[in-house]
From TrEMBL:
Organism the protein comes from: Solanum lycopersicum (Tomato)
Family per record: Belongs to the disease resistance NB-LRR family.
Name of the molecule in the record: Disease resistance N-terminal domain-containing protein
Keyword tags: ATP-binding, Leucine-rich repeat, Nucleotide-binding, Plant defense, Repeat
Disease resistance N-terminal domain location: 6-95
Keyword Metal-binding: no
Pfam families named among the record's database cross-references: Rx_N (PF18052)
Membrane-traversing stretches: none
A molecular function GO annotation: ATP binding
Length: 148
């Protein structure tokens, strides 16, 4: 179920990126949308790998529920921000809505990681997984999120 929630939010972000959407007001917002999309891709792969290697089914269920809850909240916040941008009456309101959207994208990831941190085991699993991916990418000469 968490996988489906992630896919849904990824689809929303992908549509924003593909259409060169006027809803993305500034290039820095596009960067945050791209970064959020990449983070969701990584989270989705992590969830797949964790599900395939799960020894502790109970902990996996807890992890999936946490991810699902946070992603639902994130999608609600993104949808709300996009609605505010669409309904803006003038350029000033639109600019404010765009800035708020940018702030929300940043807050979404703070929310996610703070929720993951409430469970030491999942925090360690996810942290180790991200470190492993970054290490693999660096050894291949690739970059991830602009980090070499």
């Amino acid at each position: 179920m968490a996988y489906c929630c992630i896919s849904s939010l990824m689809q929303t972000l992908k549509q924003l990126l593909q259409a060169k959407s006027p809803l993305i007001c500034e290039s820095f917002i596009q960067q945050h949308v791209e970064s959020s999309y990449q983070s969701l891709c990584t989270l989705q792969v992590f969830l797949e790998d964790t599900t395939n290697e799960a020894n502790d089914i109970e902990n996996l269920k807890i992890l999936e529920n946490k991810i699902k809850d946070v992603v639902y909240k994130a999608e609600d916040r993104v949808d709300s921000c996009l609605t505010n941008i669409i309904l803006a009456q003038n350029e000033d309101d639109r600019e404010k809505a765009c800035k708020f959207f940018n702030e929300e994208l940043q807050q979404i990831w703070l929310l996610f990681f703070s929720n993951m941190a409430h469970n030491e085991k999942t925090e360690h699993q996810f942290g180790s997984y991200i470190f492993k991916i970054k290490t693999q990418n660096r050894s291949n000469g690739e970059t991830m999120y602009g980090i070499h």
